[in-house]
């Protein structure tokens, strides 16, 4: 990429961002769009805009986001969202403090070096000479100036240690404050029990569970709920809910026809066959009422069958004390680890019921199978990623597709293609992956949504680093130097080490594209806005359908966190080699902090709360990026034949020690609830019946259900304890 292409990329990306900002300012000021730009506030019962739309100026959103406190974030979006902002501010701090030393010191050191460079000593394949002069590639082999870059490498490392340690302590406090809250939270009084042994003769499953826990916790055991196979009852329930929605829609259409047509209105009709396209034509309202009346008895009968005959070897056990629940979740209950496995319970809305009944070794086998699939996916994805990185350089395009040569040689076309083609191809290619990784994580047998997202986030991070960062770097280098390696195989290591920084300009423009265009689309919400208005105009007939059309969703940690981690990895690894990437990283995380803060306060609604359990994984992956950065620098110093490169080895060792110390000191509290935290007093006596019923699956809830229908779900032991 030459200078004109680089400037074109930055300029056009910035202009796109400005256009999207102006669109956001205009569109968010229109009351008809309030459900797209302020859904979180609306759902919380607040006015969309404080002070009215007339009082707003184009920068009101930025001021409100910047002036908001951490407690504002927690109140509107939860602890997990606040922890995400701790992550953003921590990385931002690392980059700012690193840049304070690296930019004023390393740039002049590199720019004033007059030593002769080799052909491969470049950050941009000898086409972007101005950037080369400001990078480590401009320093000659064995030069004493490399000391400055070595010191810079350690500076970045120490800044990272300090910021991560400070952040870990802060997030621990956030988690403790949330867990010791006097508010009653159902998940703090329950545990999940798996791997329940076979039934003893003469006992029901419920009696077995209740008697076991009653003997261990005689004072605080409340009752238990046996996990059942809900596949059939869920299907019937979904069918019933579907007909209820169709009935509401038909009634809305009928009511609307009275105001727009004849006073008596026109009753809607539909065909009963495939997709409503074939079959007998019937009155929609009567037909849906008949179907609902037909399904309800079948649903109620299946509820009874499910509760009595489809019990699994798993349960949710409830205690009257959250200290007991916290203690039980981290205690060994049986001699064998694959029997009576007890873990803490997530929120009721998080539960993945179908994964409860998996046995210990079934879960282990599934987990290992998924890891193998992920490893194969990473390996085989590396091939097309490497191909993309190599193929989308214009010189390689001309070699592989000679008929495009005349088009590519046009200056205007060449500039645009160099500015955007590789980065857009990579972003589009990566967009296909997240849903697949979420599916794999769920297939492991993980019982909660937050754990599934954390598992998918980890897979996506390692995929991104191995395929995007390493794959693009190595792939591009191998492609362009393959003939040289063929002629002289012993030069492979030297060529690859020298070629490592050759993709700096690619990553510079990749980061710029992500924060200018990506954040512009995030803030403007153009796509959700268009979809909402199309649905509202042509598809939605009821208030429930309109609400479903503007439902905002959550921040999407499974994809957002690893995407940010990729930028962390890129910026860290190039921070000393090409310090000019640091301002790009600062803008990415600074702008991301501001825009995501606005979205957290006004747009996104969290789908779960795990009280910051994502943080240890974030911290560990920042450290993984740091170690990769240190290894990268060690290799590059070796390529520069700097004899003191070995001085970096203690830094790598210290990073591993630092990771170990952090895990030993902090991690346990994120895995288990500290008893001193759980022992804090509640402001009211918990309503245990309400807590119990919060965990009943929607398909098993019924106004007619009483304890008689739950006779297998409430054994005599639990009944007697509830009356104490």
TrEMBL record:
<feature type="domain" description="CSC1/OSCA1-like N-terminal transmembrane">
    <location>
        <begin position="5"/>
        <end position="166"/>
    </location>
</feature>
<dbReference type="Pfam" id="PF13967">
    <property type="entry name" value="RSN1_TM"/>
</dbReference>
<keyword id="KW-0813">Transport</keyword>
<feature type="domain" description="CSC1/OSCA1-like 7TM region">
    <location>
        <begin position="367"/>
        <end position="637"/>
    </location>
</feature>
<dbReference type="Pfam" id="PF02714">
    <property type="entry name" value="RSN1_7TM"/>
</dbReference>
<keyword id="KW-0406">Ion transport</keyword>
<keyword id="KW-0407">Ion channel</keyword>
<feature type="transmembrane region" description="Helical">
    <location>
        <begin position="565"/>
        <end position="591"/>
    </location>
</feature>
<feature type="transmembrane region" description="Helical">
    <location>
        <begin position="460"/>
        <end position="482"/>
    </location>
</feature>
<feature type="transmembrane region" description="Helical">
    <location>
        <begin position="369"/>
        <end position="391"/>
    </location>
</feature>
<feature type="transmembrane region" description="Helical">
    <location>
        <begin position="82"/>
        <end position="107"/>
    </location>
</feature>
<keyword id="KW-0812">Transmembrane</keyword>
<keyword id="KW-1133">Transmembrane helix</keyword>
<feature type="transmembrane region" description="Helical">
    <location>
        <begin position="146"/>
        <end position="165"/>
    </location>
</feature>
<protein>
    <recommendedName>
        <fullName>CSC1-like protein ERD4</fullName>
    </recommendedName>
</protein>
<feature type="transmembrane region" description="Helical">
    <location>
        <begin position="420"/>
        <end position="440"/>
    </location>
</feature>
<dbReference type="Pfam" id="PF14703">
    <property type="entry name" value="PHM7_cyt"/>
</dbReference>
<dbReference type="GO" id="GO:0005227">
    <property type="term" value="F:calcium-activated cation channel activity"/>
</dbReference>
<feature type="transmembrane region" description="Helical">
    <location>
        <begin position="6"/>
        <end position="27"/>
    </location>
</feature>
<dbReference type="GO" id="GO:0005886">
    <property type="term" value="C:plasma membrane"/>
</dbReference>
<feature type="domain" description="CSC1/OSCA1-like cytosolic">
    <location>
        <begin position="188"/>
        <end position="355"/>
    </location>
</feature>
<dbReference type="InterPro" id="IPR032880">
    <property type="entry name" value="CSC1/OSCA1-like_N"/>
</dbReference>
<keyword id="KW-0472">Membrane</keyword>
<dbReference type="InterPro" id="IPR045122">
    <property type="entry name" value="Csc1-like"/>
</dbReference>
<dbReference type="InterPro" id="IPR027815">
    <property type="entry name" value="CSC1/OSCA1-like_cyt"/>
</dbReference>
<dbReference type="InterPro" id="IPR003864">
    <property type="entry name" value="CSC1/OSCA1-like_7TM"/>
</dbReference>
<feature type="transmembrane region" description="Helical">
    <location>
        <begin position="644"/>
        <end position="662"/>
    </location>
</feature>
<keyword id="KW-0106">Calcium</keyword>
<comment type="similarity">
    <text>Belongs to the CSC1 (TC 1.A.17) family.</text>
</comment>
